[in-house]
Each structure stands twice: as C-alpha cells, then as structure tokens.
Design a protein that fits this description.
By secondary structure, the chain is α+β, with helices and mostly antiparallel strands. 27% of the residues lie in helices and 22% in strands. It contains 24 helices and 31 strands.
C-alpha cells in the first residue's frame, strides 16, 4: 500500500500479508481490522469493555481481545484472524462446531473458535474442564456452552486424526439428507462459525452514512429546549432530526402506540432510554460526537420508581391514561370455601428481578433509499441486489426504503416505520439480516424508525449500531414481579385452591407487558390441577427502563412462586418434592389454570417419571415442573405462512415471516421442505422478508417451529404434487407455491365461555438440580416433552441454552435500577454465567406427539428455563433448609461459588 509522504502509518502482518494503514492512531484494533481492513470475523459485542470475547484474534499466536487495544498496538505484530487460517483448518473448525451443535445465533462463535484453535495449538488434547476454563473471556447466551465444549473436543480428535471431517458427536452423525427427525446441519452454520455470514454491522454499502442518537439525561424530566446548532455545525454532519421532523405518527408500539421515537420539546421523558434527537454523519465517530454536542434544557422531575408507588393516588401520571397498564383477572370455583375446607394452607411472597437478555449482537439497522417501481412499490429484492442499483436517484415522493432489520417481526417493523413516515406499506421492503440473538428483546423496534427517517430525509443509505451501554438502557427487560400466593391442599396433599396477587414493573412503555402479566396470571397455577383459583395480575408503568418480552414471557416468575408453594406443602404432609407433584400434575382431561381442557395426549407425567430415581438418588436435589403455552393465543389467531419459489438453476427459495435468531428455525423449515418434497436439503435457501404475504406476526411464544413449519408444509405439498405429476424442477422455474395454516379460534384470557381454548398447545418439562456437598451446582437433569423430535442436536442445544439462562436467573443475573437509572451499563455486571460456571447438563427428550401440530412437534424455546430457578431453590433448601423467595439467590452457596467475594444483597 502506497503511503502519502509525511503520513504516519501502522505496519503489521495480517493473515500472512504485510499491510500499512494510514491515519489509524485513534482507532481501536478491532475497528482497524473491521473498518479499514475488511475483516469481519471478529465481532463488536461490547467495545471497549472486553467482556464478551467476540472480538478475539491472535497477536503473535496468542489470543487477545482486539476491542481493548489501540490500533497502534498492531505495529510490527503478526495478526491472525479466522480469515487467515489455512482452508483445511477452517473447514475442520466449521465442521466440528456444526456437527456438535456448538453454534446457534453464531455471533460469539468466531471469537470462541479462534481461541479454541490457539488452545489446541499448545494443548492438543485438553480435558473438558480445561476447555471451559480457557473460555472464561467469552460469553455465549444461546448454547449453554455444553455443545461448544463438545465441539472443541471433537476438533481435538479431528486434528489428531489429521483429517478435516470429524467423527460423530455424542454418537450422533449429521444427516445431510435432512428429513424430520435427523440432525441436519444448521442452516448457514459453517459460515456463522467462520464469521463469513454477515450481520448488519458487517455490511458496508457505497456512500453509506452513519447514525447516532441523543438520549435523555434523566428518567423523568420536562424537555424545555433542544439545541442542535453545535451538532449541525460540526464538519461531516449530514442531518440532525428531532420530533418536529417526523412526517407521520411519532408514537409506535406492538400493541399500544405509547412509545415516541423522539420526545419533543415541552414533553416529559419517561426513562433514560428516551431518544431526543438523531444525527446522520459521514462516519460513526462524527455522528457520536455530534450527538453529544446537542444541548438539552430540562426541568428535572421526581421519577416513579416502583409499581407500588405508581398505583398511589397522588402518583404522577406517566401516561395520560394513568399508571395502570393492565389488570388480568381470573376466578374459577369458590376459593374461600376451598381454603376453609383445606387440611393445609401455605402462603408467601415471591420476588423476581429485572433481567437483561444479553444477546451478544447489539441492535443495528440499515435503511437504503430506493426508487419505487411503476406500481408505487419498493422493489422486492435482496439487499445485495438493492446495493447494486445504488445510488437511487429520485425525487423523495418517488422514494421508498429497503430496511435491513435484525428484529423478531419484520412485518411489524415495516408497519411501524410506514406509520412514522406517513407512507403506505408498499413503499417499504423489510428484510431480515442475520440475527445475533434476541430472546424476546428484539420484538420492539429499537432504532429502525429513526434510521429510516434519516435515510428518507438525506436520500442516502445509513447504518445505525448501538453500543452495549446504549443497548442496555434502550431495549425492554424481563419484568420484575412480586407474587403473593396462597395455596391449600387436602390431607393427602391434593391441591384444593390457589389465590395469587401479582404485580409487575412495566417500566416506561407498554411493549407487550400487558400480555406478559396476563401469561403470569394464566400460569400462576403451574402444570397442576387446581379446581378453585382467584388470580389477579397488574402491569404498572414506572420511570424505569421498559420491560417486555423475554424467554418465558411471565411463566418463569409464576413458576418460582407456585413451585415454592408445592415444596412447602410437601414438607407439611411429609412427602418429597417428587410425590407432591405426582399427586397434582395435569393429566389428559384436566383443565389448565385458564380453564382450557387438555384433551390431547401430553407427556408431563412421563417427564416426571423420567427423573424420579435421579431425584431420589441424589443427596441434595431439587425438583420443579413447568408448563408454557406455545403460540400467542388468548383471542388472537395463529398463522403460519410461507412461499416456496423455484429459481432458475434448480434452487428453491423458502420465504417466511419468522425470524431465525439462533433457535434453528430456518433449519427446521428446510427439513420440512425436504420431508414433504423429497428434494435434497442443499438446494434450499431461506429468506425472511416482506416480498410476499407471509405475515406471521412476531417470532415469539415458541411458535416459530409449529407455525413456520405449517406454512412450509402446505407450500411444499403443492410443489410435490407438481413433481409427482411428472414435472421436473427445471420445468417449474419461476413458479411460487404459497402455504398457509391459520388457527382462528382461541379465547381471551378470562373469557366467560363454557369450554375456553386459550392456546394452540403447550410445552411440558420436569427438571432436577443436584448440588455437591458444598452446595455448589453439580448437575441439571431436564426431561422435556417435545412432542416429536425434529432435529435432535438443535433441540438439545435449545434446552441446554435455556438451562444456562435459567441458572443465571436463579443465582446471579439482575439489572437493578436506582432512581430510574440502571446501576450499571456493562456486560460483566449483568451476571451471565460463563463456561466454567456451568454444571453437567443431561437432557431427556420425551416424545408425546401433538395431533394438531406439524409432525406432532411442540415448541421448546421457552419452556426450557421455566422450571430451572425453582428447582435450584428447592435444591438449596435440601442443602441448608433456608427457604429462598427472592431472585437472584446471591447469598446461596451455589451463587457464592460463582460470584466469589462479590457482595450479595439477600438470601
């Protein structure tokens, strides 16, 4: 590379080639590699904190966190990334991680793969404990680490054998043909391992500018004035926008439009994640500097910090309608009479905490202006095709947008962005780009609308990427919930009645909080037969960060309470935890808490039987059962839609409205198409975009596999009919087959109907947590009724990842706020468990096919962590006889073993 005279350059070796980079002294080494060298395998998950490990590279053969280093540190060094490893080595790494199931969303895996490669260079045959300890610098929120450790073991064996193709992992070979029931390799799994599958922040577009946001300095304050003049005067700034620049609706929301994309002058802020202005500039650094130059004059007001305070008569109204967002009530039977007749009654108050999703990929969005077609529609093409047409020169009235989203509902993104711009839906084409984890946290829009507005007003493609602190303050969290629960039983321990009063901290905006508390109410009785129930759940606005969807969606909080009550009743009548559950679990023909009669076969009792001897054979063990609805239900239709298009050249494109976010959905859709058509898996591509009428709603409620597979199944059968009629695939080029399945009948929660059906189906589980003689985590056994196993490797990975999240929820994770402000905004403080913290996990798959779902499968994305925290509490009680009713249980011996000498707040 030629260097201008008098210009300082950084010279180093990158993947075997000598390079010299000018004017890079103010960059981090990660930014130097990504932005100046085009290297995308190291990812930015927390820059400059160095707490997630996603940016790991090798410097002179040793793993280093590139986000913590200045670019000048590269001078004279030999830097190696995954891109620079020999092709045989790259293939071996990818094959081993994919075969073992060691990749889900994939965002963290290139860094882990890089470190694992370095480990095996110095220690060719490490133990599992050595592998886990070597991964201390890394976070993975998806896998639970078990299959990552499996992958490194497999890689060690493959290296020893001298080949690139690994032996079978866990005795299970991958099935390239890929029909239902086999472990088809994860769709795009190898590319995710190697970092070549692009996430939004990896995408570079010619002429692209960059966005940054100006956030509120206070959780509650009246905005007197927003002065953007200094920002606008900064060289490199293209545009600054505020509320006055929004041409359409300023408020958005999934259910209630109460969340402003900008807070206007004269209005009150409701949380520290509120956005006051947005900047577009020629580069990200300039945009961020400009955002900081925006001056805001406030009248600071006292925030509402607890739901109890929010319900007081003299509390400030956070929203015009008051602070009570929702009340969900359910009464069946005569609870008072049942309590009076009960032989035993227990009651208590259980508290759960606010929790951060901690997906490794922060929020990002790209908006690309496009020229509308003659019909006034945005071109329905992939983003790669769109950028080949740039620049899109057209008058703003003839302009549409191509939105690149990582959200959980691209059709909802399109709808809300169109509302903000005052446009018809057809002017916007939304496309899912690889999602680096979500767990519910990417259902609500983050910065898609602001990015779209900037693209529209500037006429230039624009990218906005949040830093980790911005992500933490902006997106909704798991609801902190207080549940006061009273349960009675007869002399034999059969439950007679339940009364629950539940209150959840909604935070500043509705999100899907009303539905979360509705689910908490609906799951308050757990998977138990209780004839008399009286339940009320409130969702209350506060000035804390918003709370919304997170894996489990309210069932987790209720499970912690009801399972604790079961343990108390067991002690009262002198039986163990297994027996009290055996006497009360739901059986076919019983009614769930909501009144729905469970007439279809299900395997809850089989999961309980599967762990009986394990539970009773352990010295210190806890047990809990779980139930979780599959689908949204509660009065809303459930739809699965998909199209299959035969492309020139013999490939078939599956289009869906659901999001792949690491759960393996796209792989399941390919397996469905393979099963129905008999065509090979390798000819199928999967896209999620708005090109066809495939609106399925949000990817939430464990509904992706059930409903997504239904849509593909219907479309694939139409394609198969043409193939069976003697048509060759090449004869069908250009033809699109549509598939749709809709369940129109579900009843609202609490509906006064004789035989309510609140949900399509349910998932069931029993888990046992075993502690060692010091009270530390030793093993988790998880028995799950999955209906029918679609992909064994991916399914186990979902359960293992859920258990990892559930253990953190139980012991170490929290996102506390004080005065409406998060107490910290970094990765490490959120308490997510690392690989060396994880106990052994054994997954037992129970198959009791559901006759109403594709192939009998049930969703498992959420049920996996519903029983985990109460099982941990139960095990701790077996160990030290302390009844713990508050999460996280930081003062427990299990938590102290993880946290060391960190201060704990409560037992």
């Amino acid at each position: 590379m030629a260097i201008a005279p008098g210009t300082e350059a950084i010279c180093f070796t990158l993947n075997g080639a000598e390079v010299a980079i000018e004017q890079a002294a103010d960059l981090s080494l990660l930014d130097l590699l990504r932005d100046r060298c085009g290297i995308t395998s190291p990812k930015d998950g927390c820059q400059p904190l160095g707490q997630c490990g996603c940016c790991t590279i090798l410097i002179d053969g040793k793993p280093r966190l590139s986000c913590t280093l200045k670019a000048t540190m590269a001078a004279g060094k030999e830097i190696t990334t995954l891109e620079g490893l020999p092709e045989e080595t790259r293939k071996r790494i990818a094959d081993c991680f994919v075969q073992a199931g060691g990749v889900q969303c994939g965002f963290c895996i290139p860094g882990i793969a890089m470190r694992s490669h370095a480990l095996l260079e110095k220690n060719p045959w490490p133990t599992r404990e050595e592998i886990a300890n070597d991964l201390r610098a890394h976070l993975c929120r998806c896998t639970g680490y078990t299959k990552i450790v499996d992958a490194v073991e497999l890689l060690a064996a493959a290296r020893k054998d001298g080949g690139s193709q690994p032996a079978a992992a866990n005795g299970r070979s991958l099935a390239p043909a890929g029909p239902i029931g086999t472990s088809l390799p994860r769709y795009h799994g190898a590319a995710c391992v190697l970092g070549t599958h692009l996430y939004i922040d990896d995408i570079a577009i010619p002429g692209m500018i960059f966005g940054a946001m100006r956030y509120s300095d206070h959780p509650r304050a009246r905005v007197r004035r927003i002065d953007t003049s200094r920002a606008e005067a900064l060289e490199g700034v293209v545009r600054v926008v505020t509320a006055k620049d929004v041409p359409g609706a300023r408020y958005v929301g999934l259910i209630i439009n109460d969340w402003p994309i900008f807070v206007a002058e004269g209005e009150e802020t409701r949380c520290v994640g509120d956005i006051l202005a947005a900047v577009a500039a020629v580069d990200e650094k300039t945009a961020r500097v400009a955002a900081e130059l925006i001056e805001v004059d406030y009248e600071v007001l006292s925030p509402v910090c607890t739901p109890e305070d929010g319900l007081k008569a003299d509390a400030p109204k956070i929203h015009p309608g008051g602070n009570l967002l929702s009340r969900s009530s359910l009464v069946r039977g005569d609870v008072d009479a049942a309590f009076a007749a009960s032989a035993h009654v227990v009651e208590g108050t259980w508290q759960t905490q606010r929790v951060e999703h901690m997906y490794l990929e922060p929020e990002a969005s790209i908006a690309i202006p496009v020229a509308l077609n003659a019909d006034g529609h945005a071109p329905r093409e992939s983003w790669r095709e769109t950028i080949r047409r740039l620049p899109a020169r057209c008058d703003s009235s003839a302009r549409g947008l191509h939105i690149l989203s990582q959200g959980q509902g691209i059709y909802d993104d399109r709808r809300q962005i169109a509302s903000v711009l005052g446009w018809t839906l057809e002017r916007i084409h939304a496309e899912l780009v690889t999602n680096g984890g979500a767990f519910g946290g990417k259902e609500d829009m983050s910065i898609q609308a602001q990015t779209a507005l900037l693209a529209h007003l500037t006429g230039q493609p624009i990218k906005t990427v949040l830093t980790r602190p911005e992500s933490l303050r902006l997106h909704p969290k798991r609801h902190p919930v207080t549940s006061h629960v009273k349960v009675g039983c007869d002399a034999e321990g059969r439950i007679t009645a339940l009364r629950a009063r539940i209150i959840g901290d909604k935070g500043a905006y509705a999100s899907v909080g009303a539905k979360v508390l509705e689910r908490a109410a609906g799951h308050a009785a757990g998977p138990y037969r209780i004839p008399n129930v009286d339940i009320e759940a409130l969702a209350v606005y506060t000035n804390n960060p918003p709370c919304g969807a997170m894996r489990g969606f309210g069932a987790n909080q209720s499970a912690f309470a009801i399972e604790g009550c079961l343990d108390m009743l067991a002690e009262r009548i002198g039986v163990d935890g297994w027996e009290i559950r055996s006497r009360n679990i739901l059986e076919p023909g019983d009614r769930f808490c909501t009144g729905q009669k469970l007439i279809k076969p299900f395997g809850l009792r089989k999961t309980l039987e599967a762990v009986r001897e394990i539970y009773r054979g352990a010295k210190y063990a806890g047990i809990a059962c779980g139930i979780k609805n599959v689908g949204i239900g509660n009065g809303l239709p459930e739809a699965g839609r998909a199209t299959l298009t035969v492309e020139p050249g013999g490939r078939v494109t599956i289009r869906t409205g659901f999001t792949e976010m690491g759960q393996g959905l796209f792989t399941v859709l390919v397996q469905t198409a393979v099963t129905e058509t008999g065509l090979p898996a390798e000819i199928f591509d999967v896209l999620a975009d708005t090109a066809h009428r495939n609106d399925c709603g949000q990817t939430t409620g464990s509904r992706g596999t059930v409903l997504g597979a239904y849509g593909v199944l219907e479309a694939a059968r139409k394609l198969k009919a043409d193939l069976d009629a003697g048509r060759r695939l090449s004869d069908l080029s250009g033809r699109t087959y549509e598939g749709e399945w809709v369940c129109y009948k579900t009843d609202k929660f609490g509906a006064d109907v004789p035989d309510p059906k609140t949900h399509l189906t349910y998932g069931f589980a029993t888990q046992v947590v075993i502690l060692d003689d010091a009270g530390r985590l030793k093993k988790v056994v998880a028995a799950h009724d999955v209906g029918r196993v679609i992909n064994p490797t991916l399914l186990e990975g979902q359960v293992e990842g859920s258990i990892h999240m559930g253990l953190g929820y139980a012991l170490t994770e929290e996102f506390p706020c004080e005065g409406g402000r998060p107490l910290y905004e970094d990765v490490k403080s959120c308490g997510v468990l690392r690989a060396h913290h994880m106990p052994e996990v054994e997954v037992i798959l129970v198959e009791e096919p559901d006759p109403e779902t594709p192939y009998g499968a049930r969703g498992v994305g959420e049920i996996g962590l519903v029983p985990t925290a109460p099982a941990v509490a139960s095990a701790l009680y077996a160990f030290d006889k302390i009844r713990r009713t508050t999460l996280p249980m930081k003062n427990s011996p299990a938590a102290r073993a993880i946290l060391g000498n960190k201060t704990a707040r409560q037992p």
